[in-house]
């Protein structure tokens, strides 16, 4: 018997919105240990995102906040950053809409670039988001 989840809504929020910050903190706690050896080798924090480069931030809600994605400028391209879905909501395909929400923000409606890190739970999302 499959369980019915509450409807999913995606809301544009400020980068510093409490739900966005909480989800990014959860993401850092989950993936941080996977990259700890690399972080020690770099002169700057590899997880830092300059808020001035953030175009849009989105939080997905389904009985509370369940997913996060931000679009940031990387030269003339928008790229998806900090795409995260809480573990209990992964695998359903429902939260891919978080990153798709940003499509209309890019000239021509082209999908933003996605380059998940090799140890990220989002690895493989590239195909989900391509059009």
Structure description:
- The chain has 131 residues and is α+β, with helices and mostly antiparallel strands.
- The protein contains three helices and four strands.
- Strands 1-2-3-4 form a four-stranded antiparallel sheet.
- Strand 2 and strand 3 form a beta hairpin.
- The longest helix is centred in the first third of the chain and has 22 residues.
- The radius of gyration is 15 Å and the shape is globular.
Q: Can you tag this structure with a few keywords?
A:
Aminopeptidase; alpha+beta; globular; 3 helices; 131 residues; disordered C terminus; four-stranded antiparallel beta sheet
Number of strands: 4
- If you consult CATH, what is the topology? Aminopeptidase
- Rounded radius of gyration (Å): 15 Å
Helix content: 10-25%
Explain briefly what this protein structure is.
With 131 residues, this protein is of the alpha+beta class. 24% of the residues lie in helices and 24% in strands. It has a single domain (9-129), classed as 3-Layer(aba) Sandwich (Aminopeptidase), CATH 3.40.630.
């Amino acid at each position: 018997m499959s369980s019915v989840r509450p409807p999913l809504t995606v809301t544009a929020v400020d980068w510093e919105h409490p739900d966005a910050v909480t989800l990014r903190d959860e993401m850092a706690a989950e993936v941080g240990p996977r990259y700890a050896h690399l972080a020690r080798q770099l002169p700057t924090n590899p997880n830092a995102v300059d808020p001035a480069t953030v175009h849009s931030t989105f939080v997905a809600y389904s009985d509370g906040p369940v997913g996060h994605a931000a679009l940031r400028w990387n030269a003339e391209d928008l790229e998806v950053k900090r795409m995260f879905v809480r573990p209990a909501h992964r695998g359903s395909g429902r939260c891919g809409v978080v990153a798709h929400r940003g499509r209309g923000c890019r000239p021509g409606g082209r999908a933003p670039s996605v380059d998940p890190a090799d140890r990220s739970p989002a690895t493989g999302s590239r195909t989900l988001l391509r059009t």
